[in-house]
Amino acid sequence: MEFAELAKRFSPYLKRLSMKIAIPSRVIEQDDLYQEMLYRLWEGWMRGEFEGKNDAYIRGGCYFHLKNYLRRHTEYANIISLNEPLNEDGTTLEDIIPDQTAPFDVRVDDALFIQQMKAKELTRREQDVIELLAQGYTLRDIGKRLNISHVRVLKIKENIGSKFTKRLKG
């Protein structure tokens, strides 16, 4: 069977499924989910996974792939509010992230402040976590890279926020 024929046969199902799943996630668009499932369908077809399999098996594979895709990628796509408290004392990202509209000398002072914090008050593990966060890694990715759980990474992130807050108030 040609891929075009397979895609045509499964497209209505994939579109319905992507619409059904996109609404609860509200993070990843329906079209992106549909494209991801088409890509999964193409990969499976290229590897010959669907030879002798019935439609229910193929649909199930697409469904489980999509659920795993959402589980892995929702963390990347989550939008975080700058005003959302990071810890129990109410520190927000807006309090921590330097204002890019501020004059250059103020931004340099902020950068120096962060460098001093990293050098003097953060443990090596906290420095590693903050570097990886700055590079855009998720909590789970950081945990894997540092061989610790993502829950531990979250605790380290909260500790960093607390230290920054104390230093700002202090």
Give the helix level as a range of percent. Answer: over 70%
Q: In what range is the share of β-strand residues?
A: under 5%
| Rounded radius of gyration (Å) | 22 Å
CATH topology (fold) name of the largest domain: Arc Repressor Mutant, subunit A
Short description:
This protein is mostly helical and 170 residues long.
What does this entry look like structurally?
The structure is a single chain. This protein is an all-alpha fold and 170 residues long. The chain folds into 2 domains: 3-77, no CATH class; 93-169, Arc Repressor Mutant, subunit A, CATH 1.10.10. The chain has helices spanning 3-25, 30-47, 55-77, 93-96, 104-121, 124-134, 139-146, 150-169. Helix 1 (3-25) packs antiparallel against helix 2, helix 2 crosses helix 3 (55-77) and helix 7 (139-146) packs across helix 8 (150-169). It starts with a helix and ends with a helix. The model has no long low-confidence stretch (mean pLDDT 76).
Q: How do the helices and strands line up, and which of them pair or pack?
A:
Layout: H1 3-25, H2 30-47, H3 55-77, H4 93-96, H5 104-121, H6 124-134, H7 139-146, H8 150-169
